């Protein structure tokens, strides 16, 4: 799946970065934990899978809190009230009148406060690995002490830029070198050391325990039984204090939801919001497919030069051309995001020939494309497909030069004996994809009739 377009909502004088994924019948606002980056989260296949599944039954709204990710930096620690203002600004910008809130870790207390303050805009409340008070107190024995805080701050001062805290946040991925690199980059891109420390300090001031009895919306609480960051006592306390809340205790010790429990978490959320638990035997399958991604070269500059209205016209013309060729070569459009098209084919030769025709046809209207293809086993969920093969196809496209149709060695090998010729583009490392990948540019397509 192509990562969705990042947009900005204005909250007072602060710009809040957000993305909208999917077009389901209900809005879900995902309130991030500690720090976040709405674009780089798509670089981790497990994270992308979680987001895709959430968006399969909702219109998912993701954002970066002020001071983190792609949102504006701020000179002081933001209050929960300011963060509520930011959420309302994002909801207004996306036309969301009412949404379910999915508060992750530190995002939970703000979600609780929002649900109590704006029940008319809150359809449901979902809390994962969260808490009502972060600091230790005699009646909050699972909280963090001032000594804990000092140790965390000292660690950030010394080691920020590396996979700081991975053994606590994601112990299941602590020995995976690819995940360790993504984790370190995610922290670094999401916040500076000073911003991360400010968030830690703000967390120690959070206490929304008095608000919990005022929650009057359906509430689901999900918590890993051996969570190393937020003790299970936090989840149990939330369930006891919020009227009618449902608590689901999950096995494991990961605070991040990217490993063993990830599909169970989404299953619980889907059943909670829709009333139907997904039947994976019926809806979840795997098929071999050839994945095609296109991306318009210089789209940002072209959009700025043409203006929004004229650029939309150009995009629609480009999509029209691409869809005509997809129909001709039996391709299935899966998604569009930003200025690209994501499609799937049941044959690699058809996919290459379709890509060739699309590229040549859009050149006639002044558009140049980067195109990438990869073939592999894909996960099928309803009308969508996902999995590492899709992520690999997107990364191949991102590696292509302007005007180039770039394919993985898998695609090249599958069309052996055809009249399609290739030229090696060397060995590449693809972001978020394990291993090294030989890539090849399509240099000739003789006989472009359908196969």
Folded structure, characterized:
By secondary structure, the chain is α/β, with parallel strands linked by helices. It folds into 2 domains: 7-278, Rossmann fold (3-Layer(aba) Sandwich); 284-445, Alpha-Beta Plaits. It has helices spanning 45-55, 80-94, 107-117, 146-159, 166-169, 177-190, 193-205, 232-241, 262-274, 280-283, 299-306, 308-328, 348-363, 388-399, 409-414; strands at residues 7-11, 14-21, 27-31, 59-63, 99-104, 122-128, 219-224, 246-250, 284-296, 332-337, 340-345, 369-381, 384-386, 405-408, 420-429, 436-445. The longest helix has 21 residues, at 308-328. The radius of gyration is 23 Å and the shape is elongated. Mean pLDDT is 89; it is low at 446-451.
Helical stretch tally: 15
Q: How are strands sequenced across the largest beta sheet?
A: 1-2-4-3-5-6-7-8
Range of strand content: 15-25%
Output the CATH homologous superfamily of the largest domain: Alpha/Beta hydrolase fold, catalytic domain
Going by CATH, the architecture of the largest domain would be 3-Layer(aba) Sandwich
- Looking at the structure, the CATH topology of the largest domain is Rossmann fold
CATH class of the largest domain: Alpha Beta
Runs in which pLDDT lies below 50 for 5 or more consecutive residues are 446-451
Largest sheet: 8 strands, mixed
Helix/strand class: alpha/beta
The average pLDDT score comes to: 89
Helix content: 25-40%
Number of strands: 16
What count of domains describes the coordinates?
Answer: 2
- What is the straight-line distance between the termini? 26 Å
Note the overall shape.
Answer: elongated
Radius of gyration computed on alpha carbons? 23 Å
